[in-house]
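Dear support,

We are seeing what looks like truncated structure output for some complexes. This example has two components. We would appreciate it if you could run it in full and send us the complete token output so we can diff it against ours.
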Amino acid sequence: MLLESTEKNMSNETLITGKKAENAIKESLFLFTLYICVTIAILTLMTLIYDVLSTGTTRLTSDYEVGLITKIQIDNPVDFLTTLDSRYPDRAGIGPAFAGTVWLMIIVVSVTFPFGTGAAIYLQEFAPKNRLTRFIELNLTNLAGVPSVIYGLLGLAVFVRLAGFGRSVLSGGLTLTLLILPVVIVASREALKAVPDTIRQGALALGATKFQAVFRQVVPSAIPGMVTGMVLGLSRAIGETAPLIFMGALTYVNYFPDTPLSGFTAIPIQVYNWIGYPQAEWKETASAGIILLLGLLLIMNSLAIFIRNRYEKDL
Amino acid sequence: MENVNNLRNQLTKTITRPIEKIVKFFITASAFAAILISISIIFTLLTEAINFFQDPAVTFKGYFTATRWTPTFQNPEYGVIVLISSTLYIAVIACLISFPLGLFSAIYLSEFATKRTRKVIKPVLEVLAGVPTVVFGYFALNWITPNIIQRFIPGTGVFNALSAGIAVGIMIIPTVASISDDALNAVPNSLRNGSLALGATRRITSLKIMFPAALSGIIASFILGFSRAIGETMIVTIAGGQYPELNLDPRSAMYTITSSIVNVSLGDTPHGTTAYNALFALGITLFIMTFILNIGSDYVARKYRKEYE
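Here is the complete output from our reference environment:
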């Protein structure tokens, strides 16, 4: 009885004093604003993907004709992937750029993985806690925030000029390595940090040296996390455009690179190139290139997530 | 006693094999590479920039007072103020977009979203963060400009600061959102629960308790976002155009530091020419700007971590 009457009183009060009603309105308005903000972020991504897909797929499906005069030359993904660039938008393929990106990926992985994981193992397992170590860490934090275009200038001065590699795929790969090294080191350290201390202590208790404990017990358990970090770093590297412009990747390169010292172009550079042409047909070719780039990134990110989910439970 | 020492020596001999020494040397060297990279960035930028200022056509005063940036013209002028003002202008537009959207998304994620919605929205933001900047540039030029800017502000050119700024803003939403989200999550739950227990609504709790408590982390995310916007290259190169004179009209093309670095390097710039050296002068200008902002962001972020440890 008593409860019922208080409830009644309360609801009456809500009706009478406008203050609570006003508060309720404010409350829902606030939540509404938050919804809008989140929705805008999601909608933008959707619009971007939809726009690229709708423009680019017409270029990659076979029943497509330009007006009544010419039938399009490259109309399926395989041809697009293997054909050379062209002066005509309907004949332009992304072959050399795709090959260039593959070259870059090989160079980046083979240099970044040993140095990145090595630095991470030293910093996480061996480094003394002193000023020097803190200085290295400070450097890493700052390097991660340096704009990519500055790494391009560094690569131009160091790899292209000083080391004499010229404007080659090797210079490009090494520049991208510098760019993602801080990211990979931080990710690998996180992976090592996640290995429980009991594994270290167990190995040491059984008479292993520090070195044996780290390299036979800790590092093998951290490998999946390190690989995930590497893949994420790599996916950042293949989307980078600005640093590669200094490696001469934007000059008209219409051949497949055959040695580390040959000139090259890469997918994002090729896309940038195509965006620059004013004719509408080039927009479709550029979109097709973007679809390829986003597809590659999607595959790599899925791979990273797969490795993380598959192996992390074993710890 | 001697026996013990001998035994110890024998033991250590078997333990530290040469391969271990090599590996240890290698990993130590890798870690010190971080310092080497920093030093070589500063060294290369500085030496070439010093060469730039030694050119008789360039004066230190002209670099900071001239109002045109035309390094490849017959009578070159090197007014970096044009570039700095364009860079800051586009960065401010980007911040006007990304600060509210990023912060409110973070508040929604940490204070209102259920675990399930969080699981959907977080990956979406991560995907947005992973989109290459050249794709955002394409989007700014071929979608934002014709469908938004030119529709609402007729007569705007193909290349304009507004569209580039909006695209850069969208690009840095995930940065602002994820760092702000971390900051809000780092606030002890007792503060949130205390506020709710005293009868505050969730809006009041978010705005009057959580927001001030996480303020330093949120500010750190804003500074880092601003720094990202300044260093962003491809979006402004593709969609921002190249207008080499001082102007503050958002509808007109602009010329940022990064896009002029790209454009100068695209032209014929052999090693040792003033235009080549100008690249590095711009590089160090950009490096100093982002460096100060990054240090500032790190300093503010460190402060808030201490508060709740």
